[in-house]
Amino acid sequence: MPATAPAGVGHLRGTESFPRAARRALADPQLRRNLGHATTTIRAKSAAVIDELPDWAQLRAAGSAIKTDVLARLPELLVQLEAKVTEAGGVVHWAADANDANRIVTDLVRATGSDRVIKVKSMATQEIGLNEALAAAGIEPVETDLAELIVQLGDDRPSHILVPAIHRNRAEIREIFLRAMPGVDPALTDEPAALAAVARRYLRQTFLSTRVAVSGANFAVAQTGTLAVVESEGNGRMCLTLPETLITVMGIEKVVPTWQDLEVFLQLLPRASTGERMNPYTSMWTGVTSGDGPQAFHLVLLDNGRSAVLADRTGRQALHCIRCSACLNVCPVYERTGGHAYGSVYPGPIGAVLSPQLTGVADNASLPYASSLCGACYDACPVGINIPELLVHLRDQVPHPRAEATAMAAAGYTMDRPRLYEAAQRATRLGRLAGRRGRGLPPPLTGWTASRDLPEPPEQTFRQWWAQR
Amino acid sequence: MNSRDLVLGRLRAALAADPPTTTGAVPRDYRQSGALDLDRLVQRLTDYRAQVHRAAEDTVAETIAALLPSGATVVVPPGLPAGWLPPTVTVLPDTGLDNRQIGAADAVVTAAAVAVAETGTVVLDGSPDQGRRVISLLPDRHVCVVRAGQVVATVPEALTRLVPHRPLTWISGPSATSDIELNRVEGVHGPRTLHVVLLS
């Protein structure tokens, strides 16, 4: 039985099905405006910088091949990474699931005596619900990424992998800061520059006085034990260099085999994610460096359902994801519903195939259907994950209603018998008598005609015409 | 059974039950080097809001003097060439400065390890002429001196010039965020002004 991410902890499961959650999101014009603007902007920026490169296709091919190789050798690469990090003065911990990881991190923080941690944005820590676990243990987690700070102060959930507060516009952000950030000038405007300046002042003192930081990692090089964090604001640099203790929580699929492999991903990620040639800051570190930065470094390797994904030969390509969010930005469904409707911290196309595999498909059965199968995500993905293939594969696996299975069996029986099939075809002509209004399908197939018109049946079937010509 | 054995066991079982079929050979048909173009470095840095100045080894000091007000306090790494610093500034060598002193300084001057023309990036590696990571993080102005010989065209070339074990900071413009309605705003944490002095 593959070990999926446990329920009751973390944020991989929603409380309602996608269609229901989406319907509510669609009725929110502010959200739709924010999302439409955001995704249109990022798509254009990303397309422009990708067009500059003559070898984007070759980089994608290399990225895909590297990730395929990583999964094929995942156990040995992780063991190599562990050895190299340990050699360089770091300590490696293994977390079988979210509860395990939360316990490890909480114990490590407790051991330092600190009651506060500063956090660099990390999807993995959102996935496992680390903030809640720390708070329950009396430790205050302070998000330092501007968007995560907005989400945290707004008592909200992230709605996008890369820009988690994309569902908020500047007026809403100003309001959140006024309400929840201590010491803010009431005359604060909603100019983005002013809002960013407020965040800078608010967090500066916290950066300088907190002894423990928690981060994620974009990549970890097995050959050298080097970790890399890609960011824009500088809060990453603050968290990775100022405190005495650094704890990094990383999904096991983020390992790459060699130092050279970074050359591919450092080109794919910034262009596919924020639409930049390179993001403002990328930090790389190996273990501990004497006299520079944290003198205690802990790497927590997180499974939490990834080994279950690996067990599915088709499904495992979802583990190639480098969390760029290009698929979210091109998806017509995501653009209209936003991330909350998916119920998981991994929304959008990649979320629709990763979340159900991490939790077991039964717990996220509606997500593989949150798609029109247009395939835009596959085109956009910098590592070439065939998301449509995965969506169809997962649709096959989710529990299906009995009535649907019965109807399919009946259709199959009919289509296997030519005379029966011809009779059925002739019978559909009776549909012409029903007139437009009557021509929906009966339950359990009413869903099909709720938003589609059935075509008008012709006067003769093809077989009849053929026989008479 | 500890978590390490549990996780590794699951992974090995997952792969054994359904072994991958591809050979794993990575096609590296992308560009691994390019024609060096210093103007491209200047243009790309400028595009991402760094300010770029051209100078020669013997005019660095006067170039830096023009960038900083008289009497400005400037943190410098212990190995920075002394001749780069103008007499108009107050030099604070980092012989173990505390964060308060570093944060209160007006500027920091460092060298670089390598620069990438295609992306407009400079990389610091913690060498004596670049210093601890904190000194180029806390002050609000960072002046980074790059020698022409340190510039490469592409990211793959940069990685061949960098030593993995050193603490590396890749800088492509001043700090910025696009989290608020995707409006790019400079200067969240990290220096809000980045000057790159390119020596040829």
| Rg of chain A computed from alpha carbons, rounded to a whole number of angstroms | 25 Å
What is the radius of gyration of chain B?
21 Å
CATH superfamily of one domain in chain A: NagB/RpiA/CoA transferase-like
Supply the CATH class of one domain in chain A.
Answer: Alpha Beta
SSE order of chain B, one letter for each helix or strand: HHEHEEHEEEEEHEEEE
| Low-pLDDT stretches of chain A | none
- Total beta strands of chain B: 12
The best one-word shape of chain B is globular
- Give the distance, in angstroms, between the N- and C-terminal Cα atoms of chain A: 60 Å
Output the structural class of chain B: alpha/beta
Annotated CATH homologous superfamily of chain B: NagB/RpiA/CoA transferase-like
Protein name (chain B): Lactate utilization protein C
InterPro entries (chain B): FTHF_cligase-like_sf (IPR024185), LUD_dom (IPR003741), NagB/RpiA_transferase-like (IPR037171)
Organism (chain B): Micromonospora radicis
Keywords (chain A): 4Fe-4S, Electron transport, Iron, Iron-sulfur, Metal-binding, Repeat, Transport
Outline the structure in words.
- The complex is a heterodimer of chains A (469) and B (200).
- Chain A is of the alpha/beta class and 469 residues long.
- Helices cover 51% and strands 10% of the residues of chain A.
- Among the domains of chain A are: 19-307, NagB/RpiA/CoA transferase-like (Rossmann fold, 3-Layer(aba) Sandwich); 410-435 and 459-468, no CATH class.
- The longest helix of chain A has 24 residues, at 29-52.
- Chain B is an alpha/beta fold and 200 residues long.
- Chain B has one domain (34-199): Rossmann fold (3-Layer(aba) Sandwich).
- Chain B has helices spanning 3-17, 38-47, 60-67, 99-104, 155-161; strands at residues 51-55, 73-76, 90-93, 107-110, 114-116, 121-124, 141-147, 151-152, 168-171, 176-177, 185-186, 193-199.
- Chain B has a six-stranded parallel beta sheet with strand order 1-12-7-4-2-3, with helices on both faces. Chain B has a four-stranded mixed beta sheet with strand order 8-5-6-9. In chain B, strands 10-11 form a two-stranded antiparallel sheet.
- Chains A and B meet through helix 2, helix 3, helix 4, strand 1 and helix 8 of A and helix 1, helix 4, helix 5, strand 9 and strand 10 of B.
- Strand 9 of chain A pairs antiparallel with strand 9 of chain B.
